[in-house]
Amino acid sequence: MGLFLAEGPKVVGDLLGKFPCRLLVYTDAFSEEFGSSLSSAYAEDARQVTQKELERASLLQSPQGVLALFEKPVAEKVDATLPSRELCIALDGVQDPGNVGTIVRIADWFGIRHVFCSPDTADVFAPKVVQATMGAIGRVKAHYLPLPQFLQEVGKRALVMGTFLDGANIYSTQLPATGVLLMGSEGHGISEACARMVSQRLLIPAAPHEADGSESLNVAVATAICVSELRRYLLRG
Length: 237
Fold this sequence. Notes:
Largest sheet: 6 strands, parallel
CATH class of the largest domain: Alpha Beta
Oligomer: single chain
Distance between the termini: 45 Å
Shape: elongated
């Protein structure tokens, strides 16, 4: 089974107990400060090393005293009826690790438990993505699958939403409590194949409209705005 790397007390601490831990490596300084709160009882193998040894193993510029190797979860059969019962996110070719990790973290904050990803979306278990999730990957499930076919099935039961320049103003549109929010790649947006499956086209309007400014929003920022509005509409009833 494949393994993934996590580093730092926050990320490692959140993932211990969520995934089987094959190896936990920590420094003496870390053990003195956090030893009581970050138990090695969850790890198959726990080793204390020097700061120099940790630096050689770490992928971070400034290692934070602990790293761990966890088992990747076994891929589960995807349930296309999930979006008819809860709000989910779909990522279409989002390749920047920081953006994917941040979106998983956004999903966690807003209580979204499933993110559906096209095969060309960055691997959620790549080190940079794991770090960007800040432990949220232990609470949010990512599923990799042929996205157009999945969205076609979802569309039979739930709304598929996506952001487009010709979409309806998200701030004045009645929004659902369930469904899929589809976000496209940083450079190309939502692919044509997935766009055909979108039943609700949304727009995050720029303000003021007549001002010169950026031509687009960062995909993670846009996701946060959309999910916040979806949740706000729900909480207002």
